[in-house]
Each structure stands twice: as C-alpha cells, then as structure tokens.
C-alpha cells in the first residue's frame, strides 16, 4: 500500500459523477444477484465479495496512478490510506479506522456515510435483515486491491444500519504480506 | 430499495427524506462497478444478444427508479403526458442527473414517424471500452437504452429502445445513438391529444 | 550503465531526425511474469521466438532489480541476491543505456512492469512511463471487456499509446 501525494499532471484530476448513478447501479446489481441466486443471501454475499475482488484488482491501478507511491511502513498507515485516500477518492467519504487489535493486525472501518446504500431498504422477507450484507462488495474491493500490493487480508461486515444496527462496521484483518514470485523456470 | 427481488416495492422509501442529489463520487467508482456488471453478466449468458438484454434489464430498473426520484424531487409528482415533453425530460433532466450533462442531440427519425434518437458523442459507459472483433456489434449502451426504456415505460410511454454505434465523419470513435421506437398506442394517444 | 563489451565498438544508430521515431519496442508484464502487452515500432532484428524473448526480458529485469538493490551502498537493509523484493522496497533502477539503445523501466506497486526501448539518446523517460501507465489504467483497467491478467487487446489503448509514443524525444 502506498502513501499519497497528488500527482502533478492534470490528467489525474478526479472526474466526478452524481452519487445516485452509483447507488442505483449498485442496487440493480444486488437485485440481479438476488434474482439469479433465488434470494439465497449467503450466496449473494459471496458473489458480491467475489465481484468486489475483481473490482479491487482493477481499481488499485487507478489508485496508484492517481497517487504517488511509497510503501507504507505498517498496517496502521495502510488503514489510514484506505480510509483517507482510497474511500475519499472513489466514494467521496472517509470512514473511521478504529478498534485496533493489540497486535495491530486488525481494525474496524466505521462507515458513517455509505453511498452504496443511500435510500436503500432491504427486502422484508424476514431473512434479508439477518442474512444479506448489502454492501459486501466493499469487502471484496479491499481484499482485491490489497492483494495486488502484496497484502493478504480478510474483511467482513459485523453490522449495518440497513439491518437496524447503530452503525455500519467492517472488520479488516491482515493475514500476511505476500512475497514476489520468482520468474518462471526455463524448461 | 431498487427492488432487491420482487418482494418489496418502493413504497416506504418515499417516507424517508430523499437525498438532495448533490453528492458526487468519482467517475472511476462508477466505471469499475459498471465493468463488473458487464463481467458478471458475461458469465450468465451464451451470446451477445442475451448479454445486451441483461444489461438492458439492469438499466430498466435504474430508469424506473430515476423516474420516481425525479418526479418526486423536481416536478412535484407532476408527470409528462405529451411525447415531446417526455423526450425532452429524458434528453435533458434525466441525462443531466445521471451523466452530468444534457445529451448531445435529440432527433426525430426521418423514415419512421414513431422513431426518435438521442445521440451522445461519448456515452459514459462506452468511454473506456474497446470491443474485440469477436463481439461484433455489442454495445454497452444497452444499459443506457434500458434506463431510457425504464423511464419511458414508467411514465406511460412504452417503447422499444436500442443502442447503436454510428460512425462520425472525421472521428475515430463512433458516437452512440439510443434509438426509441414508441408503441403504437402511444402514437394513437398522441394523435388524439392533437 | 554499459553492458558487455567496449564503449563504442559498433556505431550508434543515426540520431533521430524528426520527433516520433525514437521508440523501438515496449513490453508490459504483470507480477506473475505474464507478458500483457508487446508492441514493436522499430525492431529489424529478431532472433528469438516471442515467448523466449518475453521470458528473457522478464528474467533480465528480475535479475537487474535484485542486483542493483544488492549493490546499493547507501542501505544496510538488503536481501540476499536472487531473493524477491516487494515492489517499492529497496532501491530500483529506472534505465540503462547501451551504444545502440536505451531501456527504461518502471514498476507499479501492484507489480505492473513497463519497459520501453528507445534510441540511446532519448532523455529521462520516467514521466513518460508514468503517463503510459495512466493510459493503461484508463483504457485497459477500466475497459469493461478486459479480463485482468490476460494479454491486452484494446484498440483505444493502442491508438493512444502510438500517438503518445510519437512525441517521445
């Protein structure tokens, strides 16, 4: 993960769109998955995470191109970059990184604002409130993006205001740093 | 909710304070999300036509939702009843909310009375795309065509809406044209209204 | 940096006359050594098959990175020769020059490696490589039809790259 300075060229200014376009498109994706997986929410959560991973793998390149690159010294710096730069650039919101574990390997992101879930209601089929993590794609995005910069992490939601919880909280845990691969052997 | 499943329709949402629609996020966030929508749907289909149909369906629910939001917010629940009114609503109001600008042009088809075209030099969903030869005439604009159909349908103007690339002289990239073909009933009603 | 042999045994190619003929070849690799992109503008000599050529280039970069970091006199924190380093870790080289060509190199922290081979008299291309990387982000990473990790076949990227490369001096 990288520390950030603004890259000088104007080509890297952040172009904006109305947040509603993203909100509505995301809502449609979740709705499509619920239909494709016949409201099996465990599978929907899993698929959202997988899609997020695919997004993260691409999105990290945009992040790196938009910010100057220096390696983070520790996972706390990484957490700061995620909330203050990553979320800020892409979703124009800054979640709080808090509740650090003693070993400094896991923290919570508290999302006070969540553009993905604006004016959303979960289906009231008696199950979605307990089973669907509506914004689960974000866990995958972090997993994919960090894996590309050699950090293997695990992320999951522990609460969501859409479910009636007081806050929306994602728990992120560093599993390990990944080594670069050796070039393939001649054969 | 944008309709997670068909269980819940949009009823209670209107009781909540609506967002003012002024908040912005990065274009990249949308582009990556849209890319994944395309990638996911590619795994669910066997051919290009089906892929476009699924993108159009996704767009349709966005369109239906946009209409609800805009009618509530900008028009005090008053709806357009005339053909040109609804077309200009799509071309300017809807476009502005979704894409930050009015569409480049709105034209009437020259050969068919029931056809209208909204064209965009660089449609947001086609901005970063390169289409491999084996995907033929595939056009991500199907998503936007779906949005347009969703808005029109919701407003009582059923139509068939499709997206096409149209080469532009002197330009490397084709523009995207959203072709709207209204249902017969719409034209009959329009004729009655005089 | 001079490799293998005397300084000016063979004559260097004629100096570029007009802008736009300085780039010879470009490679792009991902972290796993997959050659995502290869493009030739001017490469009359071809002795290897493309797979061997790409593999050799990736191997060369890997060894050079490792070697240059090992030789770094300013830092005590070095791995063993041949042990992989994290991108951005330690020092890294950005170009070398022979009498007949210059090779410029950048690596993103996500492991994307861009290699541009140009006329030996071209200047510092670090900003140019960053720009090429940003073209990759716009027209490859954001292309809804591109699958990450697979060879890049994107018209928009090719066109914009060709156009930009012509301006390199």
UniProtKB/TrEMBL annotation, chain A:
User: Is Transport included in the keywords of this UniProt record?
Assistant: yes
Similarity field = Belongs to the TRAPP small subunits family. BET3 subfamily.
Q: Its function? A: May play a role in vesicular transport from endoplasmic reticulum to Golgi.
Its recorded name reads Trafficking protein particle complex subunit
UniProt main location, coarse? endoplasmic reticulum
Instruction: Give the UniProt record's GO annotations in the biological process aspect.
Output: Golgi vesicle transport; macroautophagy
Q: Tell me the keywords, alphabetical order.
A: Endoplasmic reticulum, ER-Golgi transport, Golgi apparatus, Transport
> By its UniProt entry, which Pfam families does this protein fall under?
TRAPP (PF04051)
Mind naming one GO cellular-component term on file for this protein?
TRAPP complex
Superkingdom field: Eukaryota
InterPro entries linked: Bet3, NO_sig/Golgi_transp_ligand-bd, TRAPP_component
What is the native source organism of this protein?
Answer: Corymbia citriodora subsp. variegata
Kindly list the places in or outside the cell where this protein is found, as annotated in its UniProt entry.
Endoplasmic reticulum; Golgi apparatus, cis-Golgi network
Q: How is this protein organized at the quaternary level? A: Homodimer.
């Amino acid at each position: 993960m990288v520390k950030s300075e603004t890259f000088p060229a104007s080509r890297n200014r952040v172009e904006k769109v109305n947040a509603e376009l993203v909100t509505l498109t995301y809502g449609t994706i979740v709705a499509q998955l619920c239909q494709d997986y016949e409201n099996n929410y465990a599978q929907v959560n899993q698929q959202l995470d997988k899609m997020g991973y695919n997004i993260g793998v691409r999105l990290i390149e945009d992040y790196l191109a938009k910010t100057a690159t220096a390696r983070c010294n520790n996972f706390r710096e990484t957490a700061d970059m995620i909330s203050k730069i990553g979320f800020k650039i892409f979703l124009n919101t800054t979640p709080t990184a808090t509740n650090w574990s003693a070993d400094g390997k896991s923290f919570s992101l508290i999302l006070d604002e969540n553009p993905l879930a604006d004016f959303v209601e979960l289906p009231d089929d008696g199950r979605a409130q307990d089973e669907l993590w509506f914004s689960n794609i974000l866990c995958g995005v972090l997993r994919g993006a960090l894996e590309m910069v050699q950090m293997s992490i695990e992320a999951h939601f522990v609460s969501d205001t859409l479910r009636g919880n007081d806050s929306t909280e994602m728990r992120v845990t560093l599993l390990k740093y990944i080594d670069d691969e050796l070039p393939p052997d001649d054969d | 909710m944008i309709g997670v499943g068909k269980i819940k329709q949009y009823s209670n949402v209107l009781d909540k304070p609506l967002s003012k629609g002024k908040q912005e996020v990065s274009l990249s966030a949308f582009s990556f999300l849209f890319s994944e929508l395309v990638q996911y749907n590619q795994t669910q289909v066997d051919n290009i036509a089906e892929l476009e149909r699924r993108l159009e369906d996704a767009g349709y629910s966005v369109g239906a939702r946009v209409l609800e939001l805009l009618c509530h917010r900008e028009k005090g629940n008053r709806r357009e009843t005339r053909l040109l009114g609804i077309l200009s609503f799509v071309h300017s109001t809807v476009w502005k909310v979704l894409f930050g600008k009015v569409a480049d042009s709105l034209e009437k088809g020259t050969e068919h009375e029931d056809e209208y075209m909204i064209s965009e030099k660089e449609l947001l969903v086609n901005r970063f795309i390169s289409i491999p030869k084996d995907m033929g005439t595939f056009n991500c604009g199907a998503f936007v065509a779906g949005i347009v159909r969703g808005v029109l349908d919701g407003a009582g103007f059923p139509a068939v809406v499709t997206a096409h690339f149209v080469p532009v002289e002197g330009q490397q990239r084709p523009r995207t044209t959203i072709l709207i073909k209204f249902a017969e009933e719409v034209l009959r009603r329009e004729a009655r209204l005089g | 940096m001079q490799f293998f042999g005397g300084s000016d045994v063979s004559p260097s190619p004629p100096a570029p006359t007009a802008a736009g003929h300085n780039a010879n070849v470009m490679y792009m690799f991902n972290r796993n050594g997959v050659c995502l992109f290869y493009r030739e503008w001017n490469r009359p000599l071809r002795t290897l098959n493309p797979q061997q050529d790409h593999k050799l280039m990736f191997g060369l970069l890997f060894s050079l990175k490792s070697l240059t970091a090992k030789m770094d006199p300013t830092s005590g924190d070095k791995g063993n020769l041949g042990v992989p380093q994290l991108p951005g870790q330690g020092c890294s080289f950005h170009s070398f020059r022979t009498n007949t060509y210059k090779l410029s190199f950048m690596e993103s922290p996500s492991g994307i490696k861009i290699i541009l081979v140009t006329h030996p008299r071209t200047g510092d291309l670090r900003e140019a490589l960053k720009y090429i990387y940003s073209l990759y982000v716009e027209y490859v990473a954001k292309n809804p039809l591109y699958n990450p990790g697979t060879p890049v076949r994107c018209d928009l990227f090719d066109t914009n790259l060709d156009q930009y490369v012509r301006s390199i001096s």
